Amino acid sequence: MAPFRIAGISFDHMHMGDLLRLVHDHPEAEIAALYDPDPAKMRAAAETFGVPEARLFTDFDACMAAGPYDMAILCAATADHAAYTERLAPHGCHVFVEKPFAASADDARRMIAAMEGTGRQMAINWPLRWVESHVTAKRLIDEGAIGDLIEVHFYDGNRGPLYHLADKVEVSAEEVERQKPDAWWYKKASGGGSLLDYLGYGATLGTWYMNGEAPLEVTCVVDDTPGIEVDQHSITICRYARGLSKMETRWGTFTDPWMHQPQPRCGFVFVGSDGTIASEDYADHVTVQTRARPEVHPIPADPLPEGGRNAIEYVLGCIARGEQVGGPLDPGLCLTAQRIVDTAAASAAQKRTLELLP
Fold it and tell me: For residue 338, how many C-alpha atoms fall within 13 Å in the half-sphere facing its CB?
């Protein structure tokens, strides 16, 4: 079998390096091309993964003409996702979008429409989907371990988006401050801010845990830091037919959760009719209470199965088998979550509770 030819499109999001590592390590995939208007952004990845100069492009059309490619990994600024997807769709490749899905539900619908009729899939990757504790929590909920799911509580974030590069290489505080004025993460027009960066995680995985159910109303409050045009802290309350759920995003946690869990601790807490589950980011277990065993007790996290250990392995497996991607990677489910994000942003701007936007 010929290897999957993968093109990396735009290095705006630092996760591109992590995803290219997964491609590089996959026995049936190769990095066929890298594109970014700024050649300097591609240099580290090209050197790390041995991508020859002939496969590096600063012109999008030239990059696509050098195809065909089986899949494009898109790591552009959020506000550019729709335009890039519309440009990629005619080239006959699957499109793998690194989170967030889009800058708005309208943009998300543009992306879905662009891929319709192409015979190719679009997948949206949320890295928390590949955390063993969160997958274990989903299994327990689906098995009825805590009865009917009533509430989803989410708190997540990091010290800030500029504090780390690919492979979680740390950046100094001085360098972070130097980059802030020009970084797209801190520009509203580019889709910056902690709400758009992290609420999609809570809304998307929350919708997955809720088996696709959408809330009725959304209320959101964000911080307002002088000199910063985007939020660095948001709290969103979703009213479902069954109860209230809370989703909180934070740039400025005391530590990054993949190094040391900050307080408040990052992850999910689920409240059901017959018990509760706490699932922390990157933990090797979940903690559970049930009516039969009300004391909090740990349950080891399930190892991720072969074929589902990471996003690249999973998506390429689905493509090879002719299966549709599912769960938090499914564009339909992600659209419901994007509507939650849009409504939260509008609620914060209008300072009032809103019905879920269409």
Answer: 27
- The full set of domains in the chain, from first to last, is 4-125 (3.40.50.720), 129-309+337-355 (3.30.360.10)
Taking alpha carbons only, the member of 130, 124, 79 closest to residue 97 is 124
Report the candidate in 357, 356, 347 with the shortest Cα–Cα distance to residue 221: 347
C-alpha 121/C-alpha 324 separation (Å) is 7
Ramachandran class of 84: left when φ > 0, alpha when ψ lies in -120 to 50, beta otherwise: alpha
Per-residue pLDDT of the chain (358 residues; tens, 9 = 90+): 689 999 999 999 989 999 999 999 999 999 999 999 999 999 999 999 999 999 999 999 999 999 999 999 999 999 999 999 999 999 999 999 999 999 999 999 999 999 999 999 999 999 999 999 999 999 999 999 999 999 999 999 999 999 988 778 889 989 988 898 889 899 988 888 999 889 999 999 999 999 999 999 999 999 998 889 999 999 999 999 999 999 999 999 999 999 999 999 999 999 999 999 999 999 999 999 999 999 999 999 999 999 999 999 999 999 999 999 999 999 999 999 999 999 999 999 999 999 999 9
Nearest to 11 by CA among 50, 38, 48: 38
Tell me, what amino acid is at 206? G
- Degrees, nearest 5: CA angle 184-185-190: 50
The C-alpha atoms of residue 272 and residue 280 are separated, in whole angstroms, by 17
CB atoms within 10 A of CB 259: 13
> Alpha-carbon distance 107 to 132, whole Å?
31
Which residue has 């309208």 as its token pair? 106
H-type alpha helices, 38-104: 39-49, 60-65, 81-88
Residue ranges in 7-56 assigned as alpha helix (H): 15-25, 39-49
How crowded is the C-beta side of 74, counted as CA atoms within 13 Å? 29
In contact, 190 and 76? CB cutoff 8 Å: no
Structure tokens at 327: 């769960």
